């Protein structure tokens, strides 16, 4: 589940209805909300934000503000246990990131540089057989 916040330029209710219709027809959309005051459209579901922006740009100017996981309801005791688990997962992600950085530093991409062509020209004075029209 992703929460996608888009900045859209909705001038009137007609464009708002069209935008809602276009976005609601996308596969994976579970919830759509529009804030006309801040001109923001919020989508919740398993959607590709690039596809949503591509469809909306046919109607109005659209930009992606943020993409992130959708917030779920807090479940009391499970919430305390979940706080402990991300610390371990975060440490492991940090180690994986360190490994990737080391691998990237070891990788040296070689560029095949092409030599510049040597230009060859003939001077008319050096070639006595050359035809010169005066």
From TrEMBL:
List the InterPro entries.
HIPP (IPR051863), HMA_dom (IPR006121), HMA_dom_sf (IPR036163)
Keywords per UniProt: Lipoprotein, Metal-binding, Methylation, Prenylation
Q: Which GO terms describe its molecular function?
A: metal ion binding
Keyword Metal-binding set for record: yes
**Which segments carry the region annotation Disordered?**
67-93
**Residue spans with biased composition (Basic and acidic residues)?**
70-87
| Gene3D superfamilies, A to Z | 3.30.70.100
Pfam families assigned to the protein according to its UniProt record, in alphabetical order? HMA (PF00403)
Ranges for domain HMA come to 1-68
Q: Which family does it belong to?
A: Belongs to the HIPP family.
Protein name (Swiss-Prot/TrEMBL): HMA domain-containing protein
From which source organism is this entry? Glycine max
Originating gene:
LOC100793345
């Amino acid at each position: 589940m992703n929460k996608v916040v888009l900045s859209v330029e909705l001038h009137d209710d007609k464009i708002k209805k069209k935008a809602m219709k276009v976005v609601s027809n996308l596969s994976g959309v579970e919830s759509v909300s529009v804030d006309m005051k801040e001109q923001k459209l919020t989508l919740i579901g398993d959607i590709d934000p690039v596809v949503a922006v591509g469809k909306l740009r046919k109607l109005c100017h659209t930009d992606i503000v943020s993409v992130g996981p959708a917030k779920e309801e807090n479940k009391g005791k499970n919430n305390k246990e979940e706080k402990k688990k991300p610390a371990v997962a975060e440490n492991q992600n940090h180690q994986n990131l360190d490994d990737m950085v080391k691998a990237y530093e070891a990788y040296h991409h070689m560029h095949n540089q092409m030599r510049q062509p040597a230009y060859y020209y003939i001077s008319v004075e050096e070639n006595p057989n050359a035809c010169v029209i005066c």
